[in-house]
Structures are given as C-alpha cells and as structure tokens.
Amino acid sequence: MGLGSGTVIWLFAIVVVIQSCLFTVSAKKIYIVRMKHHQKPISYSTYSGWYADHLQSLTSATPDSLLYTYEAAYNGFAVALDPEEAESLRQSDSVLGVYEDTLYNLHTTRTPEFLGLERELGLWAGHPPQELNQASQDVIVGVLDTGVWPESKSFNDVGMPAVPSGWRGQCEVAADFDPKINCNKKLIGARFFSRGYNMASGGKELPSPRDHDGHGTHTASTAAGSYVANASLLGYAAGTARGMATHARVATYKVCWKTGCFGSDILAGMERAILDGVDVLSLSLGGGSVPYYRDTIAIGAFAAMEKGILVSCSAGNSGPAKATLANVAPWIMTVGAGTLDRDFPAIATLGNGEKFSGVSLYSGKGMGEKLLGLIYNKGGNSSSNLCLAGSLDPTIVRGKVVVCDRGISARVEKGAVVRDAGGVGMILANTATTGEELVADSHLLPAMAVGRKVGDIIRKYVETDKNPTAVLGFGGTVLNVKPSPVVAAFSSRGPNMVTPQILKPDVIGPGVNILAAWSEAVGPTGLEQDTRKTKFNIVSGTSMSCPHISGLAALLKAAHPDWSPSAIKSALMTTAYTLDNTNYPLRDAADNSFANPWAHGSGHVDPRKALSPGLVYDITPEQYIMFLCSLDYTIEHIQTIVKRPNITCSGKFTDPSQLNYPSFSVLFGKSRVARYSRELTNVGAARSIYQVTVQAPQNVVVTVKPSRLFFRNVGDKQRYTVTFVSRKGINQLGRNAFGSISWKNAQHLVKSPVAFSWTHL
C-alpha cells in the first residue's frame, strides 16, 4: 500500500526519529552534518571535495556513504555512518553539528469559485485580468511531494509561451518517465530524491519523478493546474477543475516514498529547487515541534526566504487537540484547513422510520430501498466496534449493514473489512475525538459517514431495538452549503510550542473534500484492493489547503514581483476573513463552537483583497536573525539555520514578540504589561490615512500609539507601539483569550489577530 490510505491521519503523522530498525540494508544510520563552511581550505575548489576528504579522514566511510552535499539550502552533507563514526565527526573543529536524519510524513472542484477566482475579473485593481495571467506565466511553483502524473490534463500547456529564460531546472529521465514526452511548457521540472529512502529501506521503489501515490499530483494541480472541463471523481463534484494560479509553471520534486519523506531527501529537494529558480515552494508534509536548528524544513525554508522564495507548508492534521502544529517557523506560511460550501450528502433510514444525514463519495450500485439488518460491536472481538482487520465475524456480518466507530484505522479500510466479511453497507460513526466533522470518502461498498451526535443515536438504536435495520441512500453533489467555511476538526491547532510568542497557524484555506488531479497508478482510496482508476480524486487534509495558498502566493508574486516573501505572507494574512457565509464568526467542526486564532490564525484567505492589501508588515532576513538571537539558542545553533559565519547576536530583540509579524501572541508572565512595536509599509495609494480599531477581552487594556497613521508616498513606512495591560485582581493563570488590532480607511482593512495567554502568576 502506498502513502495514501483514505484517512486524514494517512496524510500526516508526528515526526519520528529514524530508529535502527528501519535500516534493513545496514546497521548504519543517516546523519545530516553541518560544516563550518568558511573554514574550507583554499586548496579545495569545491565544498563537496572538502566534505568528502574530511569525512574519510575521520571515519571509514566510503564514497558511497556520502548521500548528498548541500550548499544552497544548508552548509554540509548527508551521510550514512555508524554511531561511533558520527561521534568522531562531532569532535571535529570544522563541524558545527551532527544530527540524525528525520522521517516526515504527508499531511493528506469548486475551490476557485469559493475563493472568488472564478472569473478573475477585477482581481488585480487597476489592471485587466489578462495582465495578471501574462505575469503569472513567469512564476514557478515548486512542489515537494510524491512526484507527478504528467499525463494529467491539469498539466496541459496549450497556449503557454516559452519557459522563462531564468529557469535552471530540468525533468529527469527514468524507466517510466521520458522528459521529451512527459514535460512541457506547463510542467517544466520533475526531479526525484531517494538516496535517504534507499539507504534506510533498501530502495524498493522505482527511482522516478512519477507519482505512484496520487498525493503529489493532487497538490501540484491544486496550486497551479490548468483548466480541465468535465472533471469529477466518478461523477461527484463535476465541473471545471483548475488550480489557483492557472498560468503559472509547475516543477515537482519527489521526496516522499512509501515509508515517508526523509529529511535528507527533503533538504536535497529544497536545495535543488532554490538553485533551479522557483518562486514559491509548497510542502504538504511535516513533523512535530522541534527547535528550528533541528527542523530540516525550517532550515531549508530560511535559505529559500533569503533568495526571495515564499515557502508554504501544511500545519498538520492532529487537531482538534491544542498545541499540535507543525512547520511553525515565522519565515514559513503555516496553513490550516477549512471546508468549502460544497457537500456530498447521504441518508441513513432506520427501521424505526428515522432518517439521518451524512456524507459519502460512494459511486457504485446503490442498496435499493429494502431495509437490511444493522449491527454494531457484535462478536467476541474487542475491536469489532472499530472494524479493524480480522475483527468481524463473517457469520454475523454477512448481508448486513455494519456501524463502525471512526478511529485507529483508515476510514476506507474499515469499509474494505466490512465488505470482505460479507457486509453490504457501512455507517462510519464519529466519536468524541472527531466530533461533528464529516469527511467524504470513495468507499468500496455503500457507506456513509455521520457525526458523533447522530452516531450516538444510531448506536443506541442498534443496542436497544430488537430487530435493528437500515438502508443507505446517496445524494450526489450539493452546493451553497451553510455555514461555510468551517475550521476542519483535523486541522492542527496552536499555541505554537516552539516559539509561543509567534501566533500560528497563519491562515486557513480549503482543505476538506478537495477535487484535484490524481495518479492513475492507484485507486481513489489508495488501497491495494481498489482497482478503480480515476483522473481526479477528492481528498482532505492540510495537505490540500497548503497548495491553495501556494498558488495564491504565486498570483501575488506575479502581481507584485518586487514584494518579499514576508510582504506576500502579510497580504494574505491581514486581508483574511473571520466571518462565514451566514455572517457569524467561523465555527469549529469539532464541536460547532466559534473557532479562535489558534485554529484559524488570521482567518480564511481572501485572494481578491490580498492582491491589494493597502499596508504590509515586511520582515528582512536580518530581522529574522535578530528574532533567532532572542531565543535560547547558541551561536552554533543559529549558524546551522542561517549559514552565516559572522553572527554575533550583538543586535537582537529583547523578546521574540518584537518580530514585525502580522499577528500578535501576548504572554503575560511575571509582568502584567507587554509592549511591542510594529512597522507598516504602504503598498496602496499615496497620501493614505489609516485609523486604528482595537478588539480586546475585558480583562486586558490595549493602547495603540499613534492611533492614526499617515503615509505620504507609496513605500513609506510608519511605526506604531501597542501596549497590553492585564487588569489587576483577576487570576487568569492558565487561561487564554483573543482580540484584534485593525488599521482601517475607506479602501482597506488591515487586521491582525491577537492571542493572550497567562503563563505565570
């Protein structure tokens, strides 16, 4: 089975440090070595030559042991060593650090219309839409994932001009991939990186840029796929499929394989993407919360940011639990997931006449109208309620509809277990963990998902009725669902555990039941027994929301080629919205409560407004270094991230919160007062005036000075200071609250969320 398995957990798992049991080829482990590159002797013409000689002088490593050398994304190399050899490297004066490789995992349409991109009319204020389309043709989106299915119509290059002259990438040859046939003026790059995977697992997959999983094709086409008419998943979500930046170019970097995505391969992919000349990097994968100097993605993203490349990453699928975020570095765009205003309804009719709604993408022969026996948790197996493999008794299940609790195993796998045991239908019922969130799946038998409340009613009916029966019906595709968007229950939540002073996630985007291109090497469920083939698939996860934002960043880069990654990120954040299509605050799918910025960040992206934000919070690489210097990191740790030999931290922020970030995370500790400064840059009209508006909880007093900002010219910068005071006499320890600071005029609203936490008395 590939990486895809049809459950949200399938798309994301917490970081796992590679243990020696993974290394079936040898007892060696993979290490990423950070060198003091400025110490390279002048006798060496290349870093790779110095690295190889230095390695051999201290270890018994052979040339084959050196997997990668890095220069653009990192100063160092990846190598297979035994632990004793790694320790001898650590003792070298030329080595900054030696770190075990890390295994990351994937964070596994109506979207353009939902985002207001359906016509692209008036999208770019003051410019006809064809100008933005033309400018987008010079923007290149790099996608690090499971590769690409190049035959998909989403990568059609009809009408596209020649490849940008500055492009330095290429499509690589493989047994199943011919660049002359498989690449074109749309798909302009396709590479693969498997040395870490090969060393760890023995390389049981064909080395190729081709996608045998589906995930990479889905994310690449979501970001920048061409228009494809009559797209659907077996009839569901029928219509025109398109990416966010339909005229941008795509370059794919296959770094994920059956066992996951190895840090050494990811870093090599980021290195190559930087050298190739991408403008945006999209990574729908991640690990857990670790210091930035141990985070391969954060290190590669810093180098990319310094080159003017915006890096967009998925936040993870470990919600609704708090403090579950991945990819939280402030120079990364951290993307959570929300729903669309589209649904795929199904109805369960019980023998007592009650009807309950759920969702499904089942596309086979229906069940008809006859009520059939309904069972739940029958038999002696303790896991039969979860419908795990081998847990169902065929003599009990045959010919019946089975209720299965969601959790532990993949949603679609449960359906396969029911089918293999002779069941004819399945009701997949949520538990307290997943609440009311509904994710549709292309099941192998008639099946539907229901929320926890409905699930509890159905479970009680089965347990109390003498002859429980049910029949399932399927209702196709429904649009204009209200309320929407809703924050997905699976979307990982703050607070940020690496640097609590930075509010994460940054934004949410569409990530539930997303239609996009798919690999024809695998069925829509990803299960081995699923022999169906489809050109498009509907899947969910922050893996899906991330490329939406990557594509929108490409549009902003086309419209504003001189903007920094931080300016693009600020525009997407400060123009995001926090009211749904019923004009109420965004809700949380987990329990239908109102969501907060730990769930949705600045809000749901609004690309039309982001193209003309009025003001932006810009951040230079030097300011990010000042931020790093304010953390409890050694100079060596900071040099691991920044790659500069002369860092002294003589200039640093007194507090990480002083970074010019477009949101605020206020920690009240021993002091009841917190004071921060921010700087806004005018990217709107000359002679613009903005007035501040503050929303704050009753127990916090917020003062902003000045309360009015005047920008005489385009590009002018103005600073303001905000003071937060926690009121006396109220014990808030362990609590949190939320507010916002907005700068407004007749044309623009530049809004920043504020999170308040009380950590000490």
UniProtKB/TrEMBL annotation:
Where does the record place the PA domain? 385-457
Q: Enumerate the Pfam families for this protein.
A: fn3_6 (PF17766), Inhibitor_I9 (PF05922), PA (PF02225), Peptidase_S8 (PF00082)
User: Which part of the chain is the Peptidase S8/S53 domain?
Assistant: 137-582
Keyword set, alphabetical order: Hydrolase, Membrane, Protease, Serine protease, Signal, Transmembrane, Transmembrane helix
Gene Ontology BP annotations: proteolysis
> Transmembrane ranges?
6-27
Q: Name one GO molecular function term.
A: serine-type endopeptidase activity
**Name recorded for this polypeptide:** Subtilisin-like protease SBT1.8
Instruction: Tell me the protein family, please.
Output: Belongs to the peptidase S8 family.
Task: List, for all copies, the residue spans of the domain called Inhibitor I9.
Answer: 31-107
- Active-site positions on this chain: D145, H215, S543
Q: Which organism is it from?
A: Fraxinus pennsylvanica
Q: Which residues form the Subtilisin-like protease fibronectin type-III domain?
A: 658-755
Q: Which residues form the signal peptide?
A: none
